[in-house]
Amino acid sequence: MKIDVALNPAEIARLHRRDLSRTTCVVFDILRATSSMITALAHHARRIHPVCTIEEARQLRVEMPHALLGGERHGELIHGFDVGNSPFEYRDMAGQTIITTTTNGTVALRACENAASVLVGALLNLSALAEEIRWHEPEELLLVCAGTFEEFALEDAYAAGLLIEALPHHALSDSAHAALAITKLFPTALAALREARNGKTLAANGRGKEVDWCAQVSQFNVVGIMEQSVIRPIKD
Ligand code: MLT
User: What separation in Å is there between the alpha carbon of 203 and the centre of ligand 1?
Assistant: First the structure.
């Protein structure tokens, strides 16, 4: 299995040019989009619709009036939406359908649409992710680090490195080696997330407990898979 890592949004914006037909993509947006999605699925949310814009979210809600509108811009609740992007808002979701749009995470997911398979990656479900990938052993694995605005996000690369460490890997790209090396810089996931720019920003805004939540490794045995732009759970 060849493992590659897209480390930043600029690489993600070019994914439509790549042949991903033999590739499984795992999208990481640890603070907080994919952590909130995994939290929702672990609490029995039925479906999650990731979209790129607020307008798309509102239009989809017209078609699905019972769905919850979620997500963020600049880390905060979007006007008129039901929930923001704190993982704590996704712990009472049994049977819910969620439409969500975030700054980077949903954009990164939708950029992988032409891949053979797209999985939602978080520290929260790391072991379940590794087990799923070991089971299917795709020819190519691309770990997609969503980043923040136009920038690289340390926490996403750290999570990608932990997943690489948990997998039998035959061939690592330079960026995969880099992600693996990042995991050696921190004693724990919490240390990495607290050092990350996004972790510091969230803590400064009174959201430090959300960082702690997102730093829990392998807390949930759930994997989210995105098919036809809809995320559903494949493990419980
Ligand atoms: C993102 O998608 O860019 C982040 O998850 C934003 C956030 O949750 O603050």
Answer: 14
